Amino acid sequence: MALTALDPKTALIIVDLQKGIVGTLVAPPIGDVIARSRTLADAFRAHGLPVVVVTVTGVPPGRTEQPRRDLSTVPADFATLVSELGQQPDDILITKQSWGAFATTDLELRLKALGVTQVVITGVATATGVEATARQAYEHGFNVILATDAMTDTRPEAHDHSIRSVFPRLGETGSTDDILALLERTA
């Protein structure tokens, strides 16, 4: 679906571009994902729009069939954002304990207090952190845009499935350039 509109109060949400995750990814093109997320962040900041940077420091307590990473044994800088994002003091920092950025945080309240009605989402991993955040944003009534060239996953088939089959049901998809062009037309 082509991008149709950017609401006057749109926030950018960058999911899990932190040292402990980015450093373990083998799926390309993480450098491109970081660069495109930074480009979007700079543009949102220049337009006075909120930038949310999300890190994960835990996992929900539920039982799963697949082994989960024990985050109690990770390096001290695991949740440190990658410096290439150029985090700014006005950015909203959200630390989550689940896949999605809304479930275990006050993100919904903070965005709604700012009058935000739409979110643009980037980051890793496409089929977990990004998809869960998009699902939760949609369920909380936000319009959702997914920057498909500013996300990646270690599982290419999961990445492709999310983009092809899930994201069109949660919002609109587009490239970083598409979003930037829409931002310029809206400003």
From TrEMBL:
Residues 10-177 form the Isochorismatase-like domain. It comes from Sphingomonas echinoides. InterPro entries: Isochorismatase-like_dom, Isochorismatase-like_hydrls, Isochorismatase-like_sf. Keywords: Hydrolase. Gene3D superfamilies: Isochorismatase-like. Pfam families: Isochorismatase. It comes from the Bacteria. Signal peptide: none annotated. CDD domains: cysteine_hydrolases (cd00431). This is Isochorismatase family protein. Transmembrane segments: none annotated.
